[in-house]
C-alpha cells in the first residue's frame, strides 16, 4: 500500500514531512524504529486488554535479495505515485524477528507471493525453512496459475503450511484461472486461510476489486479467504462479501492509520458493520515495510471506539480461533509473555507475517 510521507532531503537518509520538518526516513516519522519505549508501549496495549500478546497475520519476511528489491521499489515509489514511503524497520532479518518478539507478537507470517511463473515453489521452500528457524512464524505458502500448482500446494500443505498469500495486483492474474482449481480445492478442503490482496489500492489491476474474488467465492464458498487491507479502497464491497460468505475475513493492514486515511479513508458509516463482523477481523500490520511505527496501527484500531471486546478479538482471539481450527494438526495453544516475548503457555497464540514481491523484484 502507499500513503503520504516525505521527500528525500538531499540523500541524507532523512525525509521532509508535510510541514517541512526533517525526520529520519528509517523511522518514518511515526514514532517507530523499535526502540525500548515503542516496544513497551505495544506490549502495554495487550496487557491493558488482558491478552498474552498479539497475533499478526500480515507481516513481511522473504529472501534477502528479494526484500532488498522491494525496499528499492518503495524508495522510488514517490516518482510513480507522488507519495514517499520511508521504511520504518529497515533492519537485518534477525533484528526484525527480535523486534516482533519484543513487541509481544506471539505468531506472525512470511507473506511470500510471486510475480511470475516458476517462483512460487522456491518461495514456499524458503518460507518452510524460515518457519523452521523461527518457530513463531506460521509456515506460509503462495501460488501462481501455472502447470503443477495443485501438486506443489498439496505438498506444501502436507509439510505443515498454515496460511497462504496471494497478490492479485502484483501477480496480475485472475483467481478464476482454471489452472488454479486444484489448488483452491485443496486449500478449501484443508481449511487453511488464504490472505489475498484483492482490493484496488494503491493502484487498480486488471483482476482487483470485488468482482474476481466474488466469482471465486461463488465457486468455492468454503474457502477461508482473508481480504488484505480490508479491500482498500473498496471497503463496502468487501464487507458485503464477508456478510455473504461465512468463511471470509478481513485484515486491518494499514487501514485506519493516518497514512491511509489521507488516501483511502474508511467510511464512518460502515463502522456498524465492522462491529457486527468483529469475530472475522484480524490484525495485520505490513511490518516491516510500513512508513510509521508499529504502535500506530494499534492506536488507529483503538481510536475507532468499537470497544475492548472487539479489540481483543482483532488483536488475538479471532486469529487464535481461526488457526486452531485450520485443519493442520498443529497446536496453536502456545503463548508468550508479552513483556518478554518468551515462549510460554497461554491461551491460543497465532500470528503471521506478510511478505511481498513486486514486479521489479
Automatic annotation (TrEMBL):
Residues 1-14, 28-37, 331-349 have a biased composition (Gly residues). Pfam families: Amidohydro_2. Residues 56-323 form the Amidohydrolase-related domain. Residues 1-37, 331-361 are annotated as: Disordered. CDD domains: metallo-dependent_hydrolases. Keywords: Lyase. PANTHER family: 2-AMINO-3-CARBOXYLMUCONATE-6-SEMIALDEHYDE DECARBOXYLASE, ISO-OROTATE DECARBOXYLASE (EUROFUNG). This is Amidohydrolase. The lineage of its organism: Bacteria, Bacillati, Actinomycetota, Actinomycetes, Kitasatosporales.
Amino acid at each position: 500500500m502507499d500513503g503520504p510521507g516525505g521527500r528525500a532531503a538531499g540523500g541524507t537518509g532523512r525525509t521532509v514531512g508535510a510541514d517541512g520538518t526533517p525526520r529520519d526516513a528509517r523511522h518514518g516519522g511515526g514514532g517507530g524504529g523499535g526502540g525500548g519505549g515503542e516496544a513497551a508501549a505495544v506490549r502495554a496495549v495487550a496487557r491493558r486488554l488482558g491478552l498474552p500478546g498479539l497475533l499478526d497475520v500480515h507481516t513481511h519476511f522473504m529472501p534477502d535479495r528479494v526484500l532488498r528489491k522491494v525496499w528499492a521499489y518503495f524508495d522510488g515509489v514517490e516518482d510513480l505515485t507522488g507519495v514517499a514511503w520511508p521504511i520504518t524497520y529497515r533492519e537485518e532479518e534477525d533484528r526484525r524477528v527480535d523486534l516482533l518478539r519484543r513487541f509481544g507478537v506471539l505468531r506472525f507470517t512470511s507473506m511470500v507471493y510471486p510475480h511470475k511463473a516458476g517462483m512460487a515453489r522456491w518461495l514456499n521452500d524458503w518460507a518452510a525453512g524460515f518457519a523452521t528457524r523461527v518457530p513463531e512464524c506460521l509456515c506460509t505458502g503462495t501460488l501462481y496459475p501455472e502447470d503443477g500448482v495443485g501438486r506443489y500446494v498439496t505438498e506444501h500443505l502436507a509439510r505443515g503450511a498454515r496460511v497462504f498469500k496471494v497478490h492479485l495486483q502484483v501477480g496480475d492474474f485472475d483467481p478464476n484461472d482454471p489452472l488454479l482449481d486444484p489448488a483452491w480445492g485443496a486449500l478449501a478442503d484443508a481449511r487453511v486461510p488464504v490472505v489475498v490482496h484483492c482490493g484496488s489500492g494503491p493502484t487498480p489491476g486488471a483482476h482487483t476489486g470485488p468482482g474476481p474474488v466474488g466469482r471465486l467465492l461463488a465457486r468455492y464458498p468454503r474457502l477461508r479467504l482473508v481480504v488484505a487491507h480490508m479491500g482498500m479502497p473498496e471497503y463496502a464491497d468487501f464487507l458485503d462479501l464477508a456478510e455473504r460468505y461465512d468463511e471470509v475475513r478481513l485484515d486491518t493492514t494499514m487501514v485506519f492509520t493516518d497514512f491511509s486515511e489521507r488516501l483511502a479513508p474508511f467510511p464512518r458509516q460502515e463502522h456498524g458493520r465492522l462491529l457486527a463482523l468483529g469475530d472475522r477481523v484480524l490484525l495485520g500490520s505490513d511490518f516491516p515495510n510500513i512508513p510509521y511505527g508499529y504502535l500506530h496501527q494499534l492506536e488507529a484500531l483503538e481510536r475507532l471506539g468499537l470497544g475492548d471486546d472487539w479489540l481483543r478479538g482483532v488483536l488475538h482471539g479471532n486469529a487464535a480461533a481461526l488457526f486452531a481450527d485450520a485443519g493442520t494438526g498443529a497446536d496453536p495453544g502456545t503463548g508468550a509473555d508479552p513483556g518478554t516475548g518468551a515462549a510460554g503457555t497461554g491461551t491460543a497464540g497465532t500470528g503471521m507475517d506478510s511478505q511481498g514481491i513486486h514486479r521489479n523484484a
